[in-house]
Amino acid sequence: MDSAAPYLTHRADTTSSGAVLGLVSSLVEAAGWLWAHWYLLAVGLAACWGGGEWVVRQLAARASAERMALELIPGRHFDPGLEEIFRRGVQLARASTSMPWWVPRRAKSVQIRLRADGTTPLRYRIEGPAGGERLLSITPFGPDVTVQRARPIVDAPRTHTVRAEFILRGKPTAPLRDVPLDPDPLQPLVDAVCDLRAELGDVAEVRLALQRAPKWLLRARRLQLLSAARRAEQREAQRAARWLRQDAGRLEDSLGWQLRQLLSGTSGPGAARRLVMPPVPRRVEPTQALGKLAEDDHLVRVQLLVLCASNTEGRAQARLAQLQAALDVFGGRSRWAMRGWRLGPWRIGADQWPTRRGFTRRWTLGHFQPPRANWVRLDEITGLLKPPTVNCRLPLLATDLPTFAFGDPELLLQGLYRGPDGRRRMVGTYAAETLFEVGVGKAGGGKTERALAQAIGWAHAGGGLMFLDPHRDSWPRAAPFLAHPHLMGRIALIDLNTGGPSALLGSWNPLAMQHGPASHDVVESVTDAFASALGWDDVAAPRALTIFTAALSVLVAVNEMACRAGRQEDQATLFQLRALITDPDFRAAALAAVGGRLDADTRAWWTSVFPTFPPDAFGVVLNPLARLAAHPVTRAFLGQPVGVYNSRAAMDAGLIVWVCPAGTGPTDRLLTALLARDLLRAVRSRRDTPPEQRRPFRLYFDELITLTGAAPDTIAAMFEDFRKYKVTVHGMTQLLGRLPGPVRMSLTQNASTLASTAGSTTAIAPITAEWGEMPSAGQVAALDRFEHYMSLTVAGRRIGPVRITGPHLDEVFADHARPHDVPRLERAARDLAQARPLDELIATAAAQQARVSAFLTQHTPATTPVSLNKGKTYR
């Protein structure tokens, strides 16, 4: 047994060696076979890779179908801080991985979509995993940003489309440029797409996708960067050593060095040569070599895709170039550059094979497959993590401010807007929501010209209006553009700036009852007009208010009785009020005729209180009436029993009424107050008409200072109440500060449009204060003539302030001027107002007292109470 042990051991070793050799031989044979049949191995590997890629794509497509989209709409004063934006970036990074474990990494991302198509300046959308919707819906921006679910965007095919992918070029560890928040970092992108035209099919979109950095990929990238840094240091050390040896060799071969050797006695073949020590490679500091990749916190990978399209050749390519220039703003030692190669005039990139198909897949499905160099920290892209702020100038598009079309009853002309591309277009606002307008600025700045252009456009569109101009300058300016046959039958001219006996003048009786107004409304309207113009109130002039109200009640009752009897020509006017107070016979006849129409308190006041007043108690009432009667124009205008002027009828019929009061003296202010109060009464009387049947009507008040000086409370009430009755007010003034407080507050509170031309900074400051000093009073004060800054209301939101050129009639309505037809227009306008010669009207007014007295005599009961005739005559 012992002698056989070595043999067995040797045999086992031989068997083991044979097995190893056999295994090695098999492996060599297999390798040889594979080498000979390498294509089979390649096919197998390709099949495995293809199958795996197919599975990954299917899973990624399935996950992409469950993504959600949110649209962020910033407010006008959205101004976030760096911390708020940074927190938003953290939310986006966290939400990028809010998906099930089986989802491939390429489908785990959050996309920021910046889109412009000519209908909006810049839409800001967030697309991400459905699981991150709750996280993304609650933003740190607060109520200044509205977050809402966004519908999918379906683009119609465009004729020309260009695509580009941007990667980070330059030093891979260097950060992008630190772009400040003021002005907005998005401003270059907004400027690049500000002149998109929807009618040409223009569209431009930038998609920034981001994903939290995978740890293993980050470690691999760091190792790669450290290795590259070490190799760079070694190459630098080798280059330095090579240059050092070359410098030493050149030094030893120089004549000076050889002479020193001869003088020192060390020259010769055995002389010692200079010892050269090669430099040692410096130690690579990880923090310096890795730069922004040194820390894990808030590090993300990004993918930046851009697509531009248009139906016009060349516009898409030009837009891409503009966006590329806009992204250069973020460039520093690291910058955004278009991926691809350039060969002469050709660029091989996302638009060509083989990368176009991958770009389309990533664009359509939202897949995330960025280049390996696209690593950024959140603070590098803060400018892209939020919607446009208050520091971003957004362009006005046709959807923001509609283009005015002549003859369109839904639009009101506002002016001419010059777009970023230099094109000018007439813009307007929607008539239904342009309720009140205020124009401020120095004389000759273009306020009245803009109002005239708007009124003329509204008239040609079939709308009714009244233009109240105390100076009459507006009528000759507007007449050539209103002298059209289809308008002449709707235009009435009430011109009180006439002179001479043959001058034509309309008429108005504020106390007339032939149209059936409520008697108490008429009494209240006229009383309030006198009280407003003369400063009467219950404290300063209670007796005057009482006497005036009681007298008007009697005269209105007389007129009501005359209309019922079919004797409209026998109605009393304001000038019969003097006779009612001063003439006992006329007063007794009037009270006897209408005694049954007066309430008991009014009859008792006339019989018991009126006789107790001393003669000097009536002067405060009689003096303004005497002034009205002393002026021939006001006497003729107000002294007619049946006045033609009827503001309520003008509103309901959609007439175009031009009213031109004369001057700004006390008598003129009183007349203006009567007109304003009558407008207030007439508009409020529209409550008897269903809202859907009320015809829109516009009032244009030039020189608000003059008008409000006569009736401040009335004008303020107009700006507060008229909206409910489909009557709007457009006011113009040189100084907002000179308007009474109630009027100024009502104007600024309810104005749909605030506009200002040039002027002093003090005068403009109240308007710019409403705009938050953007623009400042100094900027507005430096405007050229006909230039305006204005804020407008469109689709329920405020637009502007935006700079708009006021329309000049000779420019915007040049094709509609009919100067040769102006005489015919004036004749038609006076005919509609039933204007008569001034001397004829004065004669009628002088005879009206006798007509009323005769009517009362005929309708006075046979028995007259003695107490009614007891009174003194006050001359």
Which secondary structure elements does this structure contain, and how are they paired or packed?
Layout: H1 5-36, H2 38-64, E1 68-74, H3 82-95, E2 110-116, E3 123-128, H4 133-137, E4 145-149, E5 160-170, H5 187-193, E6 203-212, H6 215-252, H7 255-264, H8 286-290, E7 299-310, H9 315-327, E8 334-338, E9 341-343, E10 346-348, H10 355-365, E11 375-377, E12 411-418, E13 424-430, E14 436-440, H11 447-460, E15 464-468, H12 474-482, H13 485-488, E16 491-495, E17 504-505, H14 519-534, H15 542-564, H16 576-582, H17 584-594, H18 600-609, H19 619-630, H20 632-638, H21 647-653, E18 656-660, H22 666-684, E19 697-701, H23 704-710, H24 712-721, E20 727-733, H25 741-750, E21 753-756, H26 761-770, H27 777-781, E22 787-794, E23 797-805, H28 809-812, H29 822-832, E24 836-837, H30 838-858, H31 866-869
Describe this structure as you would to a colleague.
- With 875 residues, this protein is an alpha+beta fold.
- Helices cover 44% and strands 16% of the residues.
- Strands 1, 2, 3, 4, 5, 6, 7, 8 and 11 form a 9-stranded antiparallel β-sheet that branches. Strands 16-18-15-19-20-14-21-22-23 form a 9-stranded mixed β-sheet, with helices on both faces.
- β2 and β3 form a beta hairpin.
- It is elongated and about 160 Å long.
- 41% of the residues are buried.
